Amino acid sequence: MKNTVYCEFPVLSLLLSFGWLTIRFPVLAKQNPVTPPELFGSILASHFPEKYPHIHAAHVKIITHRWTRMTIDGKPHPHSFLRDGAETRNTEVVCKRGAGIIVRSGIQGLLVLKSTGSAFHSFVRDEYTSLGETWDRILSTEVDANWGWRLFKTLHDVKRNTRLFDEAWESARNITLKTFANDNSASVQATMYKMANEILAAVPDVNSVDYSLPNKHYFEIGKLFSEVSSLSSVVDRRTYSMY
């Protein structure tokens, strides 16, 4: 005997349509400040649990690209811009009814390189180790840095601390670049640890910092041919990227 069970749930009556969402976001952007992105993300995330009883949480992710006003004939152009690199400012906000607002900020796509001042040696070696030690190397990476804020109890709490978000982003970016450039790096891991600690010290309202600094391998291949006179004038001391 075959039993068939049917479950009924009025799911369609609870759905928010995609078209509705695409209209609501511009309206909320018109009615509220859109900078810093942490504030606008908190406004968006708070809107849904407050307005709709069946929604208990909202997740918002905002990616801010770097647009720079063009300079034409030595003057800023009134309405033309250029994309200033691949770096983005990222924000994630989660608002849960009765549980406060969780905010994470970050930097992604910031490509950096230095031609010296980086080493990697004295690491654990065993029968599976093939990597050689080096006391001087090119270091390049694409920065992915994220920091988590203390829990904000309400949207009003976020609004009272709005100025902290831009200040923290500036501090995190400056610390990242300064530490990368000036640190006589014993390893990428050691350098990112210093960066994270400095951000925590500079921004007391930040509870956690994490970095991802994957190696972008660039090798100075010119000196491989330094003893070949016919090639030395062409490739000696030139740096090429290798993938």
Structure description:
- The longest helix has 21 residues, at 162-182.
- Residues 229-243 have low confidence and may be disordered.
- The chain has a five-stranded antiparallel sheet, with helices on one face.
- It has helices at 18-31, 37-51, 155-160, 162-182, 188-202, 229-235, and strands at 57-72, 75-96, 100-114, 139-149, 206-212, 218-219, 240-241.
- The termini are far apart.
- It has six helices and seven strands, in the order H-H-E-E-E-E-H-H-H-E-E-H-E.
- The radius of gyration is 25 Å and the shape is globular.
- It is an alpha+beta fold and 243 residues long.
- Helix 4 runs antiparallel to helix 5.
SSE succession: HHEEEEHHHEEHE
Helix content: 25-40%
- Count of runs of 4 or more consecutive helical residues: 6
Global geometry: globular
Which consecutive residue ranges, at least 5 long each, have pLDDT under 50?
Answer: 229-243
Q: What gap, in angstroms, lies between the N and C termini?
A: 63 Å
- Radius of gyration using CA atoms only: 25 Å
Overall pLDDT level? 87
The structural class is alpha+beta
